[in-house]
Design a protein that fits this description.
The protein has a single domain, classed as Vaccinia Virus protein VP39 (Rossmann fold). About 35% of the residues lie in helices and about 20% in strands. It is built from 7 helices and 7 strands. Helix 5 links the parallel strand 4 and strand 5. The radius of gyration is 17 Å and the shape is globular. The relative contact order is 0.15. The structure holds S-adenosylmethionine (SAM).
């Protein structure tokens, strides 16, 4: 179903450092129950990219019960936590793509999405790794193509290097998106959403202030 010709590799870990024993058969059996296969033109979708332990997907699914959240993450330990919480909270509007978000974007040939969340994308702060950063103007323009009119992208980061990079990417696609909160006094996530993901907590514990960018499709 997915073509293999996407050029954008997915970097980062698939398993946690703890190497806690995981029953992979059980994992893949459970993933199969929630796995994203294709779009249904009758549904409206939210794209949640790089969901880690899945806190954002659970938050979005509860907040938008009439939408389907596509949670994209390859990190097995994180997906196990998401799958547990889907069952714990009896959630029926999350589907999981346990791989690269580019696979989903590739087959979204229509304006399928009402909202995109990208919470704490890997910043790859070293210059020699800059090409690994997910958020570029090219990537934002790809999202523009699959977003419905007036819909939004929400991006959170605590990395000053990535903030500069994201600002540059936003500037380079200013004909595609309006940066809605650029004139706000601050860009703090908690002014908008009551959510704490693993990387949000890490940032706060290290005295780094995460910023939130809200872009609206033009
Ligand atoms: C720093 S973690 C953030 C996790 C979570 N959003 C949070 O706030 O705690 C970034 C995650 O993005 C995932 N990721 C990076 N590139 C991705 C891609 N192209 N498609 C899907 N997931 C991706 C990584 O596997 C990683 O788990």
């Amino acid at each position: 179903m997915f073509s293999n010709n996407y050029t954008n590799r997915l970097f980062g870990r698939t398993r946690g450092r703890s190497k806690k024993k995981i029953n992979l058969k059980n994992y893949y059996d459970t993933v199969a129950k929630y796995k994203f296969k294709n779009f249904n033109d009758k549904s409206e979708y939210i794209l949640d990219i790089g969901t880690g332990y899945g806190e954002t997907s659970i938050f979005l699914a509860k907040q938008f019960e009439d939408k389907v959240v596509i949670s994209c993450e390859k990190y097995i330990d994180g997906n196990i936590s998401l799958l547990k919480n889907i069952q714990k909270y009896n959630i029926n509007n999350i589907i999981l793509h346990n791989g690269n978000v580019y696979n989903v974007i590739e087959i979204a040939n229509k304006k399928h999405f009402n909202l995109v969340w990208i919470f704490f994308p890997d910043p790859w702060p070293k210059n020699r790794h800059a090409k690994r950063r997910l958020i570029t103007s090219d990537f934002l323009i790809k999202l523009h193509r699959i977003l419905k009119e007036n819909s939004e992208i929400h991006i959170a980061t605590d990395s000053t290097v990535y903030v500069r990079f994201i600002l540059n990417s936003i500037f380079n696609c200013k004909d595609y998106f309006l940066w809605l909160n650029q004139s706000e006094m601050n860009l703090y996530i908690k002014d908008y959403f009551n959510i704490e993901t693993k990387y949000y907590k890490k940032a706060i514990n290290s005295q780094r202030k995460p910023s939130l960018f809200i872009l609206r499709k033009l």
